[in-house]
Amino acid sequence: MVLGRLKLKHLFFVALLMLCILHARNVSAQNFTSTTYTILNPLLAPGDYSTSTSFRLTSTRSQFSIGTSTATTYGVRAGFLYFPFATTPAVSATAGDAQVSLTWTSASAGLGWTVGGYNVGRSTVSSGPYTFTSVGNVLAATVSSLTNGTAYYFVVQALDSFGNSIATSTEVSATPAGAVSPPPPTPTPTPPPSGGGGGGGGGGASPPAPSPTPTPAGTADTAVIFSGRAYPSTEVTLLKDATVAAKTIAGGDAKFEITLKGMSAGSYTFSLYGTDTYGNRSSLFTFPVTLTLGATVRIGGIFIAPTVDVDKSEVKKGDTVRIFGQTSNDAEVVISVHSEEEFLVKTTSDTDGIYFYNFDTTPLEIGPHTSKSKAIVANEISTFGKSVAFKVGTQSIDKSKRKILKGDLNYDGHVNLIDYSIGAFWYKRTLSEAFKPVEAEALNNDQVLNLTDFSIMAYYWTG
């Protein structure tokens, strides 16, 4: 009896072993090593091999599938090292008495990453080394206990939810100084004495001419300085509260700087945009600024997003659509094609900042699609710019000259509350030179904003 039970147990374990062998699968894993980053909580998943003489892979790749895989006729490009996922903040620095006030734009993260906070780095030497301080998930900080007359240099790091740095701004500088003295009041002239009485009654003496008010010592100009990247040898426009304040031409290296002097203290909304060699405008880069008397605010690290366009309004499924635009010269350009699944591809711009990519529409479904792009130069990463639309269908149609939709004041292809807000700003005001062509194209070309124009926007409303 005991022997029979042992045989049954033996047969059971043999059967269990055979079952495990038959259902075993290979498990593949990859080791990650680096002196500059850490992979937290990696996940292992089973992997298999496939072979084919000709195939196409259309799928979502994990962010841990880093870099490039190649074959004679096939390649995979994926991962957060190949497609950067966080934009670099633009930073403003305002010097005060023994302190510098910093503000910055929000870093925009993608591909599943979120920004969890920021570090502020400071140094008395350009390019560092920096001493970093965590300031939390905020967009402003004041660095105090500084020495007046000493130049300080600052950068801002964007952190992920684990506290790891995922983007670093370019450097800005400021020199703290003592408080600026307000100008003294204008002295009131002393009235002349009355004329003496007597025989002829002479008239009173003429009042002395007032002396010019001297410029008080210690006062400084109130100014704001913008610097960053746009497109090589093209125009950059600065708006102050939706009105054109200045224009400049970027250098051959795409860098620009605009200075506004003689400003009044107060709060302003500044916006910049670039115009490429095709005549296309970039999306707006907007930065609210508060100016104090006698202070100069420096806003650096601005990276105007690329322009983007397509050569076809409709493309036959399986044909290519040419996606092109302009950005900083010699930049890496990430192009997003938005479909049911987002497709990301990469190309580079030439010495004039021109880029293009012939996108194969085979994996796209029939219907409307959009594309947008962002650029990377060194450690600077722009935001995604405006989107351009195209359709995948049964025929290819070259894109005709842009048709302006009536009521569309910001040229985004829609008439909605944004256009109403723009119209409300200009309501019964004198139009700026920059806005006059917009009014002429999108409204009734009478060079005024009134109820007639709001009726036009209501008629063409798209939402």
TrEMBL record:
Bias (Pro residues): 181-194
Q: Which SUPFAM superfamilies match?
A: Fibronectin type III, Type I dockerin domain
Please verify whether the record's keywords include Signal.
yes
User: What keywords are assigned to this protein?
Assistant: Signal
* Ranges where the Dockerin domain occurs: 402-463
Question: In this protein, which residues make up the domain named Fibronectin type-III?
Answer: 83-178
Q: Which CDD domains match?
A: FN3
Which one GO biological process term can you cite for this protein? polysaccharide catabolic process
Which InterPro entries does the entry mention?
Dockerin_dom, Dockerin_dom_sf, FN3_dom, FN3_sf, Ig-like_fold
Q: Which Gene3D superfamilies match?
A: Dockerin domain, Immunoglobulins
Leader sequence segment: 1-29
Q: Is Signal tagged as a keyword?
A: yes
Comp. bias (Gly residues): 195-205
Q: Where is this region: Disordered?
A: 173-220
Q: What is this protein called?
A: Fibronectin type-III domain-containing protein
Question: Lineage of the native species?
Answer: Bacteria, Candidatus Tayloriibacteriota
